[in-house]
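User: Can you predict the 3D structure for this chain?
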Amino acid sequence: MATFLYKLGRLAFRRRHFVALIWVALLTLAGVGAASAPAAGTTSFSIPGTEAQKAFDLLEDRFPGMSADGATARVVFKAPAGEKMTDADNKATVEKAVQELSDGSEVASVADPYQAQAVSKDGTVAYAAVSYDVSGMELEDSTKEALEEAAQNARDAGLTVEIGGDALQATPETGATEIIGIAVAAVVLVITLGSLVAAGLPLLTAIIGVGIGVATITALANTLELGSTTSTLAMMIGLAVGIDYALFIVSRYRAELAEGRDRNEAIGRAVGTAGSAVVFAGLTVVIALAGLAVVNIPMLTKMGLAAAGTVVIAVLIALTMVPALLGYAGRKIQPAGSKSKLLGGGRKSKNQSSENKPNMGTRWASFVVRRPVAVLLFGIIGLGAAAAPVGSLELGLPDDGSQPTSTTQRRAYDLLSEGFGPGFNGPLMLVVDAKSSDDPQAAAATVTDEIKGLEGVVTVTPTVPNKAGDTYTITVIPDSKPSSTETEDLVHGIRDAGADIKADTGAEVLVTGTTAMNIDFSQKMNDALIPYLALVVGLAFLLLIAVFRSILVPLKAALGFLLSVLAALGAVVAVFQWGWMADLMGVEETGPIMSMMPIFMVGVVFGLAMDYEVFLVTRMREAYVHGEKPSQAVVTGFKHGARVVTAAAVIMMAVFAGFIGSSESMVKMIGFGLAIAVFFDAFIVRMAIVPAVLALLGRKAWWLPKWLDRALPNVDVEGEGLRTRSDDDRKDADPDEERELVRV
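Assistant: Here is the predicted structure, written as structure tokens:
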């Protein structure tokens, strides 16, 4: 591996014009594809294998005109104080609004509140249900404007009017904090690399890689039904790993220059050693993201594969474009320890002995090696305390009740709860498949009677048959809000009753609707967590055994990851569920944690955690292989890697934290969760627990059974094969190489 990458790095350095041209062409091609691609249409959300999805599919088959996936809007009216919605003037205003709402070309139906009995018992609140032929993302702007205009006209007449549903859903915005995150990354790069030019390389290559990835996703969005969250996730992860991977290559290149090697040899060795770590770190991230397909939820699978593709691009750019740009930079990239004139380079140090003074990484590693037990206990107890809130974790999916109170969707939600009860915002739809029943109508009546007797049911609407008369729909209104455990218990109660009804009548009762879909989604995520964790950790464990040629080091890496991901989930619960520091994070409404958050955190955080494990521990492994004692190898690894790993972690945290400003709760939660997870993993697990454990294990850390050692391929991440090369070896160079070296 190291020898192949060594040659690749030298080739990219010498043939920089060709390499740069390829990447610019790919960026241009992706950009043209994104610009010419049709706008993204509807994003299908399906949960194969669940009862809610089975019912949804049955509705589409038996009720072809329902437009089950079409957009909906609930226009909620509230009368002024002391008045009723049944007053003549207010009734006339609502009927006029209903007429205006019915005029749109994309409108499928509008239910008049007075005919549909959609007026509250106290007469103060009424609503008109609007159904559309197309999804919310496909609605034309003129249709949305007509909806808002009808509501405004009713407001002008003196009513309070709010609009719920998904008809007015907007594309999420990330805000200015994303730019701030990139700016922080730029500052950290300048401080770490000591040069504006060197700092600009990782940023430039990361932006190019993300540009190619996001543009490709945009170009394929309509064909593959990719949502806006897919490109946001790809951008988030692509920026973070792209900057980090390039940083490791550039840092190793400067270190090789400091050892006196010429630039072509230095880039070859940098790509051969740090590049090997980049390849295996990238593989762990790709395994974790692509492994999301195990959950068997198409939306999650597409998100994972799109982000994994962006990571692959980041790895390829680090191995080829970074060496090419280093060739263009020439002598503007100084050896490690040197700074540009702008940052004080060229001035003589007043204290010459300071040049030989141990750096911070060396001093910290030496302390940990001397006090491994104390450091280990401190780290484990600290992460355990952070993970404590996980015990009260509540999972769910966001609805209009989790929207900020400033939105019309949230105000409509509150008005409906006030007028009709909290369960009205999460009605359950029952689909009665009576095709196998001897008397379908009687079977539907039996279902209605049984459901009315269940605890937690407020209203059961009359049955609605299809044209064939073999399928019926029934709407059930719970007495609790959609995201409550009481509503979840009711769904399970209806399903249990359905099993008895099927035995008696032959009719199958299926529960669907948004609330039931959310419950089934959460359950499926919980069921998939352990298999997914076993698959991802298992594959990465085998990969790390080949990288480190050790059993205990990969095992320690996996256990450390579990600590960091639990601590990060605990922090997410504390902020987004308990409300700690909610104002600081811009969280306007606390509630259940997104159902996909645990499995998503497991996948992404594991991949990112292994980045630091590979980058830091390969340096230790390299020192150990080259003859140093285990404890000294730990110190050497920190001497060369701690500064860069620290900078990489700060950069990744800054990039992820930049997405906390998003207007979409899912993106905000993911940004915070990944940022805090990187903090825990990089600074507590990898910087404290890892060296403490390695110091305690000594030579046992690098033990590997002889039979396994013979069976494993020699990936040579530490670059042992490069050791045997003479610095003046030019056998694989072409005749133009010497002229290229003179130029730089």
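Residues 346-355, 726-744 have pLDDT under 50 and may be disordered. The first strand starts at residue 72 and ends at 78.
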